[in-house]
Amino acid sequence: MSALFDSHCHLEDSRFESDWDAVLARMAEHGVSRCLLAGSDRQTNEAISKMITRSPSLYGAAGTHPHEAKAFQDSDLTQMAAWLTLPRMVAIGEIGLDYYYNHSPRETQREVLEKQLCFACAQKKPAIFHVRDAHGDMLDILNAHKAKLPAGVLHCYSGSVESARQYLDMGFYLSFAGPVTFRNANRLVETVVYCPTDRLLIETDSPYLAPEPQRGKRNEPAFVRYVAMRVAALKGMDIDSLARITTENACLLFHIEPAP
Q1: Neighbours of 57 (CB within 10 A)
Q2: Which of 82, 109, 163, 251 could connect to 135 by a Cys-Cys bridge, CB 3.0–4.6 Å?
């Protein structure tokens, strides 16, 4: 099978401290050649910038998650720019809006998102978007900046087909995670079927959202194969073709050299 690319995970999470090397070994054993670690705040961005030096299979992103928007300072952008000069730091993220938890005030989330959106354009880096229960405001903000948008991906996509159409029309990718394997994932199934294969990514978002049949366990990059199997079935493709296409898409989006 072609190698898989887990386009979004959080290996800096403390739940991986005791067996980090074993997690990477299982990732390789199960055909996952690369994964991207997405940042959330100053601490995780710093951790990721160091962690990716430990393995050539790891790539990183730096950003302020909407949960952490209340702690954002404009000086964070200067530090983010420094991290993004490092080898294999390839994206801004994750950034966006989360109206489900509202850990930061919504107005603050919107302000921080717009600053990072403009920063991504200036840095010529792709953006990784987190959106939960906020697709209306996200689309409004993106449309307001449509004259100058970075490349990007809606990670762990959970919106409607109609929202997906608008994101795709803007040139963005959609990434699907463990929930697409759940029994009640009717809306996600519809969106996967709708999404063109050249705009499709897969991910784990580990340690969260483990797919069936691992649901309830700590998620890890090796489990992206279950997402791949489900998405391939929904697209009427064999798993090898799905792995090849989604890996090519991830490399294209994040400006990563394809494997030889």
Answers
A1: 18
A2: 163
CA distances from residue 133 to 85, 229, 255 in whole angstroms, order as listed: 33, 27, 30
| Cα 20 from Cα 200, distance rounded (Å) | 28
pLDDT tens digits, one per residue of 69-101: 999 999 999 999 999 999 999 999 999 999 999
Across the strands, what pairs with 174? Answer: 154, 200
Q: Is the pTM of the predicted complex or chain greater than 0.90?
A: yes
Angstrom CA distances, 120 to 15, 102, 195, stand at: 30, 24, 24
The residue to which tokens 């898409």 are assigned: 249
Neighbour-count burial for 212-237, b at 16+ CB within 10 Å, e otherwise: bebbeeebbbbbbbbbbbbbbebbeb
| Helices (runs of H) and strands (runs of E) counted in the chain | 9, 8
Residue 191 CA: distances (Å) to CA of 12, 94, 163, 234: 30, 22, 10, 10
**Backbone φ and ψ of 155, nearest 5°:** -80, 150
Distance CA 62, CA 93 (A): 5
Instruction: Estimate to the nearest angstrom the gap between the alpha carbon of 113 and the chain centroid.
Output: 16
Helix residue spans in 13-96 (DSSP H): 20-29, 42-51, 75-83
DSSP secondary structure code for residue 86 in this structure: S
- Rounded to a whole number of angstroms, the CA Rg of the chain reads 17
Specify which residues 130 forms β-bridges with: 96
Cα–Cα distance for residue pair 94/112, rounded to 1 Å: 12
Amino acid symbol at 37: L
